[in-house]
Amino acid sequence: MRIAVLGTGMVGQSLGRRLVETGHEVRMGSRSAGGEKALAFVAEAGEGASEGTFADAAAWGEVVVNATGGLVSLEALAAAGEENLAGKVLLDISNPLDFSEGFPPKVVQPDGRSLGEQIQSAFPEARVVKTLNTMNADVMVHPRQLSGPHSVFVAGDDADAKAVARDVLVGFGWEADEVVDAGGIAAARGLELYLPLWLSLMGSFGTPSFNVAVVRAG
């Protein structure tokens, strides 16, 4: 597939490289074309990688990944263009974390609504799936580095969009039964609220290389 990755930070770069490795074409989107990080991504990822503005990438992509900082995601997606997101699967992996008052951060959910829900409301024709926001970038794209089964969540109102997300995750190396359907996009509330605990555990463990597993009876 042609996949637009919006955001040139560590998460966007990690996802972009892995998507190219697993056979996808990737266009990295940023506020302005020709940025240092985006060009470095293209040079490293090689054939199948390109870069442009948020709007360039979103218009080109069949699937769009929001890997921007959660506090600026709505602004970045507006720059990408509502018309460029309409009808497309939009994988939202961002977290709206506010560190302005120190640690642990506040999760910014106005009126109790998750960022995932806000994105779906602001771009109603996009098919938003919240996923991959509950772990660090390396575990996202190389899940088999951890021993034993562990879980990645998908949440969204469109079943076909969640199936596309599942296919991307399995391509990264997730087992099909490790992909846990958390329900509709409202489930993004809990997925985002997990992040302060994740950050505390990272401090306790001294490493971000961990994840959680959902264990079911029977």
Question: What do these coordinates show?
Answer:
39% of the residues lie in helices and 20% in strands. The protein is an alpha/beta fold and 218 residues long. It has a single domain (2-205), classed as Rossmann fold. The longest helix has 14 residues, at 159-172. It is globular, with a radius of gyration of 16 Å. It starts with a strand and ends in a 13-residue tail after the last helix.
Strand and helix map with partners:
Blueprint: E1 2-6, H1 10-21, E2 25-30, H2 36-45, E3 49-53, H3 54-60, E4 63-66, H4 73-80, H5 82-85, E5 89-92, E6 97-98, E7 106-107, H6 115-122, E8 127-131, H7 137-141, E9 152-156, H8 159-172, E10 179-183, H9 188-193, H10 195-205
Parallel strand pairs: 1-2, 1-4, 2-3, 4-5, 5-8, 9-10
Antiparallel strand pairs: 6-7, 8-9
Helix pairs in contact: 1-2, 3-4
